[in-house]
Write a structure and sequence with these properties.
It comes from Heterosigma akashiwo (Chromophytic alga). Strands 2-3-1-4 form a four-stranded antiparallel beta sheet. It has seven helices and four strands; from the N terminus they run H-E-H-E-E-H-E-H-H-H-H. The chain has 226 residues and is of the alpha+beta class. Helices cover 42% and strands 12% of the residues.
Length: 226
């Protein structure tokens, strides 16, 4: 199997969904092979995180940048979670390291459904080509909302228990993936479990926040009344 050999490259659009007519994409498509240091991965399950990718690729050489985003182009949905698969761009410090990674017969994260090809452009060059966004108007309440977001240490007892379960599930998953002992069915079940715990934690934190706000808005002395 392997990761697709050294020849294949990203088809169609350039970085960030630019059409081939864009100057940036034209430049990207003519990037000499010897200057390419970035791989494009597709078929990533939704819960794969940057840390596990960086850890997998570091034996091939220094990893300088990893980006993950939802792959809406493929239209494929992860069976276990119903969410779209992700794609990722991984940039190495050298062309040699990226080439060694592509040539490796070991499946990425021991998942034979994840494939890798040469990206048309390196991440640092893509970032330099992106126009800087205009100053967006500040949304009312955004700062207050950010200030109200609880620190992990400030989680309620219920949220802390969910967080512990989530940490345990992630560690178990990472260890099993490294050992390569998971069947596709078991892997999908573990991925679905991690995502459901993440959603559970998020909704618990929101509930805790709503309770705090309600308590803060209650008239003083209301608790003592009655």
């Amino acid at each position: 199997g392997g990761n697709g050999g050294g020849g294949r490259e990203e088809a169609g659009t350039g970085w960030g969904g630019m059409s081939k007519g864009d100057g940036a994409a034209k430049q990207a498509n003519t990037l000499p092979m010897a200057q390419r240091r970035t791989l494009k991965l597709t078929g990533l399950p939704p819960q794969v995180h940057i840390g596990s990718l960086a850890k997998h690729f570091s034996p091939f050489g220094t990893v300088v940048n990893v980006q993950i985003k939802a792959d809406h182009e493929s239209g494929k949905v992860h069976k276990g979670t119903g969410k779209p698969f992700n794609l990722s761009y991984v940039q190495f410090a050298s062309h040699t390291a990226a080439k060694a990674c592509l040539a490796s017969p070991t499946p990425i994260l021991n998942n034979r459904f994840i494939s890798a090809v040469w990206a048309n452009i390196n991440l640092d060059e893509a970032a330099a080509q992106q126009p800087s966004p205009p100053n967006s108007p500040k949304r009312p309440g955004a700062a207050a909302k950010a200030a109200a977001a609880p620190a992990v240490s400030g989680l309620s007892k219920a949220a802390s228990l969910i967080q512990q379960s989530l940490d345990g599930a992630r560690q178990l998953y990472d260890r099993a993936m490294e050992a390569g002992v998971l069947s596709d069915e078991r892997r999908e079940k573990m991925e679905a479990n991690i995502l459901s715990l993440e959603e559970k934690l998020e909704s618990q934190v929101k509930m805790d926040e709503a309770e705090k706000v309600a308590a803060a808005q209650a008239p003083a002395g209301a608790e003592a009344a009655g």
